[in-house]
Specification:
By secondary structure, the protein is of the alpha+beta class. The chain has 14 helices and 15 strands.
């Protein structure tokens, strides 16, 4: 059975039970109240009649009914009582609505307490049927009981009055039940719209799926409502905020957990904030903040996704390395293809000596470089990037010189080779671009690496266009570039980040004859001051 149908049946059934119960309860209360009021009224009339002197005096006459009957009937007609009966101590009637019953004994069997001096309200069956009676004794001047006054209302009259009220209550109860059923349908439809027509089982499944999806996302996710209370946070967010994962942040104010959070500003403005940097728990993260809108396009909350910047940089480094290796292979293939074609042409022309000279020259140059790298820079990763950049420089007609005094053997295992490749590769690429932008023929890039002492030193020198004064302060900013091209300005920012990861320092200064020298110093032991 669908949730909508269950809600309608449940609410309708509850309303029906409650309304029926209340109707019968009110009816019972009404009958009881009517009986109580009618009994009290009948007793008051009886006491009034019992205090009348003309009634008392009539008891001394030879025929009391001749005096009492007219008076009592008049009172009965004025008070709308069903009957007023007066009898002596023996229960013989002196007055009765039906004259033929005068002189006969009173019926009901409830005169005993009255003859003992009590005034009572009783329910009994008399000569006119079941009735509610108010009875009181009549006293003479000597305070002796000489008779009884009985004023009654037939029970059927009371029930008829109650039936009139009961019918009215049933009518209004029916209206209330119909209105309630209409409300139940409206509530059920409202619930259905609120949950987008989904069933509870489907909602539960979606919730489990959502939790599973959130936990598989590498980004931290936090959502808040308009009051700034955190309503959702996945495990990645918890790890970034509290590495020990001892804190439960759901239900807390976002500013208490992340004081620098701008999610409340996003809720106020309704504008998204994309790729913003901030510090969480001493870690730099890249944050996206988006407002959450309801169907009326009102902001009902905000959600933030953030990721550790070092992970993004590592990914960028990996992509950069792939690009470098690809370019190195392409340039090497292109360079050697040209040389092979040249050698092939010389052999066809039977210029064997010239072909041998080219082969010897290329062999000497590359063998000399390879032998030098194997001897002084034995790390295959760093040696590989240098060979690739050497071939790339040859293709670009740039002289890439690796200082013969370079030595890069003592590299601690704790220092990431990927970071070193990132630093060397990006600095050489920038140097190559700088010299290619010049018009002179002597385009040179020099590389010097040393591991002497307690630090590693990397020096990249070029005779390119240099760095303008107004750009020096922004050189390492992400996205800043002196070239008016898209997707530029990331190389030196990545270098800066890699140097910081290695707890090193990077500096640069311009050469008087043109160009720039970049110097990177990296401690061999972490925590050692440079």
């Amino acid at each position: 059975m669908r949730l909508q149908t269950r809600l309608i049946l449940l609410i309708g059934t509850l309303l029906f039970i409650i309304i029926i119960a209340l109707t019968f309860t009110f009816e019972r209360m009404l009958v009881t109240t009517l009986q109580k009021n009618v009994g009290a009224s009948a007793l008051k009339i009886a006491k009034t009649v019992a205090l009348m002197d003309v009634i008392k005096d009539a008891f001394d006459d030879e025929n009391p009914s001749e005096i009492i009957q007219p008076i009592v009937e008049k009172i009965r007609m004025e008070t709308d009582a069903e009957f007023i009966v007066i009898g002596n101590r023996e229960g013989v009637r002196y007055a009765h609505p039906l004259p033929d019953r005068i002189g006969k004994e009173m019926i009901g069997g409830d005169n005993g307490p009255v003859l003992n001096g009590e005034s009572i309200v009783s329910e009994a069956v008399g000569s006119m049927g079941p009735s509610l009676r108010g009875k009181t004794p009549i006293y003479d001047d000597h305070n002796q009981i000489i008779g009884i006054v009985s004023v009654g209302i037939l029970l059927k009259d009371i029930h008829e009055s109650a039936a009139t009220y009961r019918n009215a209550m049933i009518f209004f109860a029916a209206i209330a039940l119909m209105v309630g059923c209409g409300g139940a349908i409206a509530i059920a439809n409202g619930v259905k719209r609120s949950i987008h027509g989904l069933e509870p089982k489907e909602i539960g499944l979606l919730y489990q799926e959502k939790r599973a999806i959130l936990e598989t996302i590498h980004e931290g996710i936090i959502a808040i409502n308009t009051e700034g209370t955190i309503t959702l946070a996945n495990q990645t967010a918890l790890k970034l905020i509290d590495p020990l994962e001892k804190m439960e942040i759901t239900g807390k104010q976002v500013r208490d957990v992340i004081p620098e959070s701008r999610l409340l500003e996003v809720i106020k403005s309704g504008n998204a904030e994309i790729d913003q940097e901030m510090v969480i728990n001493e870690s730099t993260v890249v944050v996206n903040r988006l407002p959450i809108f309801d169907r009326q396009q009102q902001v009902v909350g905000a959600v933030s996704s953030f990721r550790n910047k070092s992970e993004l940089l590592r990914l960028t480094e990996e992509l950069t390395q792939v690009k470098r290796y690809t370019e190195a292979l392409r340039s090497q293939t292109h360079e050697y293809s040209n040389k092979l074609y040249t050698i092939y042409g010389l052999i066809q022309l039977e210029s064997y000596q010239e072909a041998m000279d080219i082969i010897t020259h290329e062999t000497d140059v590359h063998q000399s470089l390879i032998h030098f790298l194997l001897r002084e820079i034995p790390d295959p990763i760093i040696g590989g990037i240098l060979i690739g950049k050497f071939n790339r420089a040859n293709e670009l007609k740039v002289s890439l010189e690796i200082d013969t005094k370079s030595m890069f053997k003592d590299i601690p295992g704790a220092i990431s080779r990927n970071h070193l490749v990132t630093i060397i590769g990006n600095l050489i690429d920038n140097a190559l671009e700088a010299v290619l932008a010049t018009s002179h023929d002597n385009k040179t890039v020099k590389v010097f690496l040393t591991d002497v002492g307690k630090a590693l030193m990397i020096v990249i020198e070029d005779n390119g266009v240099g760095i303008e004064k107004d750009a020096e302060n922004r050189l390492f900013e992400t996205g800043f570039s002196t070239k008016n091209e898209v997707n530029r300005g990331y190389g030196l920012a990545i270098v800066k980040q890699a140097v910081q990861q290695l707890q090193g320092q990077i500096s640069f200064h311009s050469r008087s004859e043109g160009g720039v020298i970049f110097t990177v110093v990296i401690p061999k032991e972490k925590g050692r001051e440079l």
